[in-house]
Predict the structure.
Amino acid sequence: MQINKIKKEMTEILSDVFDGSTIMVGGFGEAGSPIELLHGLIDKGTKDLTIIANNSGNGRVGLGALIGQRQVKKVICSFARSAKGVTFPELYNKGEIELEVVPQGTLAERIRAAGSGIPGFYTATGVGTPLAEGKEEKIFNGKKFILEEALKADFAFVKAETADRYGNLTYNKTARNFNPIMCMAADKSLVQVKKILEPSEMNPEHVITPGIFVQSVINIENPIIETNAIEEGMTYP
Amino acid sequence: MQINKIKKEMTEILSDVFDGSTIMVGGFGEAGSPIELLHGLIDKGTKDLTIIANNSGNGRVGLGALIGQRQVKKVICSFARSAKGVTFPELYNKGEIELEVVPQGTLAERIRAAGSGIPGFYTATGVGTPLAEGKEEKIFNGKKFILEEALKADFAFVKAETADRYGNLTYNKTARNFNPIMCMAADKSLVQVKKILEPSEMNPEHVITPGIFVQSVINIENPIIETNAIEEGMTYP
Amino acid sequence: MTNIFTNDLIKGWDRNTIASKIANDLPHSSYVNLGIGMPELVSQYIKEDREIIYHSENGLLGMGPSPNENEIDLDLINAGKKPVTILPGGSFCHHADSFSMIRGGHIDYCVLGAMEISVTGDLANWSTGKGIPAVGGAMDLVAGAKNVFVMTQHLTKEGKPKLVRECTLPLTGAGVVSRIYSDYAVLDITNDGFKVIQLNEDITIEYLRTVTDGNIYQ
Amino acid sequence: MTNIFTNDLIKGWDRNTIASKIANDLPHSSYVNLGIGMPELVSQYIKEDREIIYHSENGLLGMGPSPNENEIDLDLINAGKKPVTILPGGSFCHHADSFSMIRGGHIDYCVLGAMEISVTGDLANWSTGKGIPAVGGAMDLVAGAKNVFVMTQHLTKEGKPKLVRECTLPLTGAGVVSRIYSDYAVLDITNDGFKVIQLNEDITIEYLRTVTDGNIYQ
């Protein structure tokens, strides 16, 4: 029997996602953002989600749409104030969605730590700022650091460029961003990918996310381009 | 003016290395071990070195030779008992070289931490064993972890497959091992490489060590193959 | 229970039989790290109904069998520093990423040898307390892998039990072993002691008790 | 010293002049992260006697200028989410590796805007205390880069000093700024206060004192 992590149907790849899940969403702005998986979640109607991502969605597509559908109760991110953000500010200003702000590098390292079995680490980032409040401090070589804890998730929603049936992934340019570390930190990583390759076509030197960090893959050959979708006034559903 | 990290002479690339330096030496067994750089250090006669590596040298070439020349006062490694080890056991059994044993994954993570500005992190590795003695403990979610501190170095001696003048590196197969993280953790990374490429020939998606982590590169087209050298009874100098 | 002499011993399962039992217990699609030595045999007994991915801690996922003489590449070695191959779908990574796989709980099973295993799952397999101390990746593996299987002879060469109330040798990890595959039995570590999952056909539970130091039940 | 009105103000260096001063101070072979907005101008004033490598925290080292309209790739963007290019010798990495470059002290210089800078080098540039809080990578950059340069107007739009004894806004980092490039002066943060490195030709040190809250010396 052969390992095959490729799913045919969106309903199948999303079948385990439950109300109240914590979901990491890859991407930095639109680059690497798994719009089709997020739309699948709108179709599924999953509720009370906690989203871990760098941003809080643009327009009314992808994460912006999911938030607009009031399926998200909390967002953990570094930058929730993007120029094209619509739905998050609407709900936030009404007090109808929670926000936890994490410095971008600390967010990345907390995610990597979760994937690497490191429950906590010390960093100088944020020391002396409001984001250090309530955090344990420790001195190393005369300098003050704060303790940050691992950030894990039930699921990672990830967008990649190529995948094989083992779940090995490559990305395109800066669409790599948070995706590889989110695959490491989630119990189950669900990946939408532009192109499926044979394992023999995947160069073992060039794999960015080894299949061990990936549970399911779905082929979305021509994903929605966020910039265009927003310009065209797209909304989902 | 163009950045060019490529050095022509071994004496030039080693010019900054000083007596009492802490040096990370890449490689796992012979794969990725920078034998020519180590031989250069024997020629230079630098003394009182602390070596951070996975192993403690084989035969009387490379690290084995450097230790045999009594240029090393201490080795920090995970496995100092390799089948072909000669010089380290000789000195260790006479009490003439110090040894600090670190679990392999903790060694790797402490090195990566140093390169990533993380002064300390918690791990379950070693808890309840003699290697946890004297280490701070902390409970996360009811489970015990120990604090491990970053491990940095003055220099990293690294072997790679290709490099460009910016110091971007690729490796060959499992010769990658500790080399990329050691480049991150050392003040100066000195790299011997089989082949020099033009920057335009280096695919930005496939770079494993970005040039920011590399200070100097030297082209060693046909490096010594340790297995063969030991079989042939090679000694250095 | 103590000081059984080697010449009195019942001959248990051979190492190939033990390896095949372990191979049967590794589910389809598992990520597995096989320790150097006896555990390496396990890969030869994986049945066709499953695909297993082997991890070698020196940055190799999807490790294949030993190469032919003319295919040896000294840059492609396993954790035991022996030449190996990589299968399609395999990948290389650096040491920190490789141990993220281990420490982060992504390796489903590791199979290791043992000097002593205590009734609470403590494992000693890295140091006799003599010679040059060398731990390698053993402590990371037992702390990080989801399931730690031990493959071992039931008794030491001197005929002493390896399964003990308390380890006397320096530990590799405390409370880490899930299952033991010895030449005499397959046993799970439980809150109540060693639970016999399978007993060698030639021995009785009473005999097993005489060669094991610690509570055993069926 | 306080409440200088905008219409009384002397016109200082324009932003291009400030950018060229910063560009002159970045040594050959530096790794530099330029903040979104005004600091991006700096790259236009690098002289031919040096090569600078630009880092963008979203996983891009060796960032080049904006692309032509027909070369835009929405998967190749900078930290401001604008399309950019990559130069030969550049590379991509994931976010944890990108911030290892920052936090690990590998970025030689970062150039950032400011709302307030204290005489001890505290920086406030991420929050007015109102609206949706959003920090991005600013806290990591100021904590990690070897040298933190601030590029700023000397006064706020309301004509209040941005260089102050103590910041009133939420901090981005404490004691992190090394040098300030304003339209009025270039100043180093020292133990004795703001040290004037260069003064705008049109103003006096006395005038600078009236628009700065905190000790200044030459």
Summary: Chain C has four helices and 13 strands. Residues 1-7 of chain C have pLDDT under 50 and may be disordered.
